[in-house]
Description:
The chain is an alpha+beta fold. The chain has helices at 11-21, 40-52, 70-79, 99-109, 112-119, 123-137, and strands spanning 27-33, 83-97, 147-159. InterPro entries: SAM-dependent_MTases_sf.
Amino acid sequence: MSVCFVFFPNAQKALKNMRNSLKKTGTLGVSVHGHKDKVPFFSNISDAVTEFIPDYVPPGSPDMDRFGTKLALHNEIRKAGFSKISIKDFTFNYSPGKFEDYWKNYIKYIAKPLKEKLNSLDISKRKELKHAIKQNTIPYTKKNGDIVFPWQVLILTAKY
Length: 160
């Protein structure tokens, strides 16, 4: 079974349902992105966008980083009744290409309601936003123009 429990407003309910679906000898496997500081691929865009569009993320939406640290993830899984929790931390590099590639893919794959909010910006604000995002990528941009982001993934296993 594959479920992205970070999208559930009530993660505990989702995790407890997962636990109830496991055999008593079962093992839960979870992978999550690290905190936004450890996965700037997302935060370079989201931090800038929320400055221009404060309601970009709907009110009441779960924080996408809430399980992005070992401690937070461990505590959430433990609260759901799991035991023998093990978390491994992996960081690798990911390149979305040059800035224009990064920007175009963001625009291409963004959810329709978010795209509508983005499109509601006037052209000058949209250019400012794009520039702000580009500024955010500078620490990760190589001399050849390629962006290379670190990308942390936490892999957890836990017993029923």
